[in-house]
């Protein structure tokens, strides 16, 4: 079995090499053997056996040479009728990433108290891509679509997510606290909720239609703007690198208030 370099991070250190012999018992499927190596199937793209495209249910024969490729980037996500962008659900360890995704206008659900079975249920019912760094969670057969988030730092995690899915961005349109839509609101309407210094310094405000949180471009606005600009560049680069024959992304396919996103 030959594993693509992009997937080697999932293998134990002692077996972290591209090509290796795998025992063939005549009954195990290729998908089982790949996951036994440590690679979750949601991270696997094309599988070939002796140069022929096969699926995870393929039963390898002794002597076959199997190639395991990563998912394509950008990776298409199946969309519901009327849906123009993927929806996401993040596990409990990705709270900062969730806030940054909401800053970019991505529909991002996040709970800091939800267990694995509940995450799978919500992802399936709402057709959300489940993002996690828990490999065991990605191995759950019931999960309709999941993805492993690479990187330890929020900057790296966001870059990986945007490079993988290249979703359309709508910055400054979602509440970073609850994911609700933001709408413009007049200064006079929110003035009673503002500190004196804020009222004197800022004139443009927005309010979350779900939790009522008030937003303005405050002292951290420059930092957040840099996040937005870098995200736009990452998405543009990912789309530019897409092979000419591949479909658009996303599209039908496989699997202080002002510093809230920092």
Automatic annotation (TrEMBL):
Matching InterPro entries: Mut7-C_RNAse_dom, Ub_Mut7C
Source taxon at top rank: Bacteria
Residue span(s) of domain Ubiquitin Mut7-C: 2-74
Bias-annotated ranges (Low complexity): 238-248
Region feature Disordered, mapped onto this chain: 51-70, 238-262
Pfam families per the UniProt record, alphabetical: Mut7-C (PF01927), Ub-Mut7C (PF14451)
PANTHER family (UniProt xref): MUT7-C DOMAIN-CONTAINING PROTEIN (PTHR39081), MUT7-C RNASE DOMAIN-CONTAINING PROTEIN (PTHR39081:SF1)
Name of the protein described by the UniProt record: Mut7-C RNAse domain-containing protein
Species for this entry: Actinomadura keratinilytica
